[in-house]
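Field log, afternoon session.

UNIT: design team B
ACTIVITY: writing a sequence onto a fixed backbone
BACKBONE:
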């Protein structure tokens, strides 16, 4: 039988423009942007010689050294779903919990909903992961592809040693891998990523797998951005993920299938009015000028519990200011960006001072304020949980501004014993999507 055509899907990374921490509570929303940096996953059949039976799924990240993971899989008794076990490659075994957990969840779901029950022994497949370079901050060599010679770099390290820039690689990976598997194994009548129904299935399954793999339930904004792209996001109630059996244990298969279809998912995604004014770009800088603080989310939540009234006042006012910024951007009011973002940053710093957490640390305040004076830059924020490792900028979308910012941050890094680098990524509206294969020339085996 000839091999069916490979299936490629990509999902974007994320950046919070407004609403970090607040979004952990369903009372508040966040303004999240998808990014032009995408994780691509290409699914292909593995052709076996006649008479050879293989039950193997290979996931490979060929941009990195030694970054290939091989899994066997089989259906377990008592409806425990598809149990995935990693196979040794040589002497080493190098785990990738995000890949492994996603395979358990998604293969289990596929086995449950597949109209073709003989597919219960799923054919072997190879999944190739190609991530845009900005997800990682190592120096790299550009091997390139036919169509785009500077797209996927070769990094000189295994993935586990790669330095992440914090663009949400795990969420984009889990989303793209989930979508590629669903598209590869299921007919479009059951799963079609280009439809609203397909995105709902994908979101619910990817959200569950991502939470399980990271061992905690966050707000889920990163999976929301990977599926839907830029949006206003209200989180789901965490209780929906309670009491899910472990993969391979009794009842996992019906529980996952029921979870995907459940009417209890109460997240809200709105793309309406989420946009940037024409000529304005959302850009990111990777900052490497200090140490990362751990446990920030825990500390902020502890302060919230301890100062209920004071924290509520800050959160409510911040929510209003975040909504105002979203509205001003949608209305194209570029002149108002500077004061609107300043008003948000003021309260983020208040939150930091009150909770004792450097959400916008002093060094980032100085950097952001200095960048505001660079011609073409409106303002910027410390995105997400915050700290010392990144800033997001609203700036004019032209080459001259880009050059000025690049030069400015380079000099800034030198003066502050570190490195600050303007990444190539930009805020982008679109979420997950099917891709043609041209981009991947030279990477697929
Ligand atoms: N190219 C890739 N191929 C396979 N797995 C990947 C790839 N990139 C990331 N991953 C998976 O995602 C994990 C990194 O996820 P993690 O949540 O720590 O970072 P992140 O999502 O990039 O950053 P942040 O959550 O700060 O935005 C890796 O350990 C690996 O399991
Ligand atoms: C603090 C929080 O709101 C954002 C964390 O963002 P990031 O992973 O630091 O980009 C937590 C969450 O939303 O899960």
């Amino acid at each position: 039988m000839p091999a069916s055509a490979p299936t490629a899907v990509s999902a974007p990374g994320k950046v919070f423009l407004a609403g970090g921490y607040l979004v952990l509570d369903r009372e508040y929303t966040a303004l999240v942007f998808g990014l032009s940096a995408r994780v691509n996953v290409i699914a292909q059949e593995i052709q076996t010689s006649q008479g050879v039976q293989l039950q193997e799924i290979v996931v490979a990240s060929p941009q990195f050294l030694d970054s290939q993971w091989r899994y066997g899989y089989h259906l377990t008794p008592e409806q425990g779903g598809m149990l995935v076990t990693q196979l040794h490659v040589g002497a080493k075994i190098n785990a990738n919990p995000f890949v492994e957990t996603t395979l358990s969840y998604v293969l289990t779901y596929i086995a449950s909903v597949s109209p073709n029950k003989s597919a219960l022994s799923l054919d072997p497949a190879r999944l190739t992961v190609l991530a845009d370079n900005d997800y990682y901050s190592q120096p790299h060599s550009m091997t390139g592809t036919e169509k785009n010679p500077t797209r996927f770099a070769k990094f000189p390290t295994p993935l586990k040693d790669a330095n992440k820039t914090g663009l949400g690689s795990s969420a984009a990976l889990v989303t793209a891998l989930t979508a590629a598997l669903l598209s590869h194994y299921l007919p479009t009548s059951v799963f079609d990523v280009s439809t609203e129904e397909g995105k709902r299935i994908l979101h619910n399954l990817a959200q569950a797998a991502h939470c399980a793999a990271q061992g905690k339930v966050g707000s889920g904004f990163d999976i929301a951005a990977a599926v839907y792209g830029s949006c206003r996001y209200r989180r789901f109630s965490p209780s929906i993920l309670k009491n899910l059996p472990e993969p391979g244990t009794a009842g996992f298969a019906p529980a996952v299938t029921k979870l995907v279809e459940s009417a209890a998912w109460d997240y809200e995604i709105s793309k309406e009015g989420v946009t940037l004014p024409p000529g304005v770009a959302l850009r990111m800088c990777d900052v490497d000028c200090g140490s990362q603080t751990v446990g920030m989310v825990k500390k902020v939540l502890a302060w919230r519990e301890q100062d209920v009234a004071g924290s509520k006042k800050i959160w409510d006012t911040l929510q209003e200011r975040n909504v105002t910024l979203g509205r001003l951007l949608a209305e194209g009011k570029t002149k108002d960006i500077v004061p609107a973002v300043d008003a948000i940053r003021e309260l983020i710093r208040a939150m930091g001072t009150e909770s004792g957490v450097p959400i916008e640390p002093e060094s980032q305040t100085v950097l952001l304020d200095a960048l505001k004076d660079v011609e073409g830059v409106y303002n910027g924020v410390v995105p997400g949980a915050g700290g010392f490792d990144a800033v997001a900028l609203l700036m004019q979308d032209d080459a001259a501004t880009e050059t000025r910012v690049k030069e400015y941050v380079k000099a800034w890094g030198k003066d502050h014993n570190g490195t600050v680098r303007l990444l190539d990524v930009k805020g982008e509206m679109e979420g997950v999507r099917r891709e043609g294969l041209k981009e991947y020339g030279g990477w697929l085996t």
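LOG NOTE: The two ends are 18 Å apart (CA to CA).
NEXT ACTIVITY: expression trials, pending approval
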